[in-house]
Amino acid sequence: RSTVMASQAASRSNSEVTDPEVPDGNEDDDDADPLAYPANGGIGSKIMWALSAPLLVVFIYCIPDPQKKGMAWVAFFMSIAWIGVFSYYMVIWAEIIGATLGIPTVVMGLVFLAAGTSVPDLLSSMIVAQHGQGDMAVSSSIGSNIFDVLVGLPFPWILYNIFKNKPVSVVSGETLPLSIGMLMAMLICVIATVALMNWTMYKSMAYAMFAMYAVFLGVSLYTADWGC
């Protein structure tokens, strides 16, 4: 019995010594250089590399590693700062493109800016939905939009009133009641659709929501002032 126990102890000690030396299959992925040019990749990966390389340079060299001690909060606030910089130029470029192509700013904000700023919500919802957390996916999207309306809009308005000492004029104020009414109607339709699906996500529910968005987009584009 003592011989068996000694052999088991020896095997455990050998495994403890040899385990740290076993290479991890994910180690190469973690240590891979995100700025490395995909020479052996397809045309799609090369295009994505060319589009994302400037952003990667900013993120890698201008934001500290949050895993380092005391750098988590610094990285957090610097990330928010860079998001503000990118958002500022995104709005300016959208206005320039809209003015060049004769597209109203309301349409640019409704279609392009709304779609661009909703990509993070889309990715987060996809990730949690793939893990079976459908309620988190829906609540995340609804919560983010409520935050945009109740905080994202009034906060810059308050800052503008404080520093400029004058109210903010809404250019598209004539179509604003219609947009708000459609927003409330779409919210009721979404809740009704989810309830009819027995609070379970199916492909048919996705098709129904795509159809509702198409209706909302069509009405908004039809009522927009294309003469501006």
Question: Could you characterize what this model shows?
Answer:
There is one protein chain. With 228 residues, this protein is an all-alpha fold. Helix content is 74%, strand content 0%. The protein has 10 helices and no strands. The N and C termini lie far apart (92 Å).
Question: Measured on Cα atoms, how large is the radius of gyration?
Answer: 26 Å
Uncertain stretches of 5 or more adjacent residues: 1-23
Structural class: mainly alpha
* Count of DSSP-assigned helices: 10
**Mean pLDDT figure:** 78
The overall strand count is 0
C-alpha end-to-end distance = 92 Å
Keyphrases for this structure?
228 residues, mainly alpha, disordered N terminus
TL;DR?
With 228 residues, the chain is mainly α. Helix content is 74%, strand content 0%.
Secondary structure topology:
Layout: H1 2-18, H2 27-31, H3 43-62, H4 72-101, H5 105-117, H6 119-130, H7 134-152, H8 154-164, H9 176-196, H10 203-223
